[in-house]
Amino acid sequence: MTKPLIIALDFPDWPTAEAFLDQFPKGEHLFVKVGMELFYKTGPDVIRALKARGHRIFLDLKLHDIPNTVHSALTVIGQLGVDYTTIHAAGGSEMLQAGVAGLKAGATKAQVKPAKLLAITQLTSTSQSQMQTEQLVQATLPESVTNYAQIAQQAGCDGVVCSVQEVPLIHAQTGIDFDCVTPGIRPATSQTNDQKRSATPLAAAQAGSSAIVIGRPITQATNPYQAYQTIKAEWEQK
Ligand SMILES: O=C(O)c1cc(=O)[nH]c(=O)n1[C@@H]1O[C@H](COP(=O)(O)O)[C@@H](O)[C@H]1O
Could you report the per-residue pLDDT of 193-203, keeping only the tens digit for each? Predict the structure, then answer.
């Protein structure tokens, strides 16, 4: 099976997201990411609408709270029947374990397939110098990311969100079945925007990314379907 290319639906409401999706041929089943902006506006209705169109869903709410709160929230998310969801590794192993248990409890309750739980490591908008000066982390950025990956794997998470640069290091440590989902993807001709650790679709494929996440180079393209096809071809080239 080809590895997923996940389109970030970073839109303010459902009509805008729907108008974007309507630019793709009918019957084209996509893998889409619903983030905080769209989900806070629509609630679970957006999940139902996307499922009805046959799309796979990454619900990206990046939970980070005390273990009890995260357990309860992920029990609710687990009932939605999405494919991937996110939690912050920085919350620590106890919180991650609570999240894993909550997600499973929700899926069991709703009798749906459990989502894969991905731990956010260092955001792709973070540079090493920013991490060291603002988070007071003495380690290098790859060391911080691989440390989070190890904690996430031990806690029972299915994978991490990281940049393409860290994928080979993580896989060497965790094995390739542990997902490395990589945002910050930019075709060579695109602007990097706020992304600090970006890479091309081809570099992601060569590094062994399990899936790529890409928003603006597709959502803000003059012809989104054409941009999607070009990026997909590069991602699937290797
Ligand atoms: O969890 C994410 O998806 C995520 C983690 C991360 O470290 N960096 C990152 O960019 N993202 C998300 O990936 C998407 C990237 O969008 P673009 O920069 O427009 O391609 C956004 O929806 C971000 O919220």
Answer: 999 999 999 99
Query: What pTM was computed for the model?
Result: 0.97
Average pLDDT, integer, range 18-43: 97
- Cα 144 to the chain's mean position, in Å? 18
pLDDT in tens, 69-104: 999 999 999 999 999 999 999 999 999 999 999 999
Q: Is the CB of 35 under 6 A from ligand 1?
A: yes
**Domain 5-235 = CATH 3.20.20.70:** yes
Measured from the Cα of 216, ligand 1's closest atom is 19
User: For all residues of the chain together, what is the average pLDDT?
Assistant: 97
Is 16 labelled a binding residue? no
- Could you state, in order of their start, the residue ranges of all structural domains in the chain? 5-235
Ligand 1 centroid to residue 109 C-alpha, Å? 30
Question: Could you confirm whether 177 is annotated as catalytic?
Answer: no
Report whether 51 belongs to an annotated binding site: no
Residue 220 near residue 23, CB atoms below 8 Å: no
- Any ligand 1 atom below 6 A from CB of 32: no
Whether the CB-CB separation of 145 and 166 falls below 8 Å is answered with yes
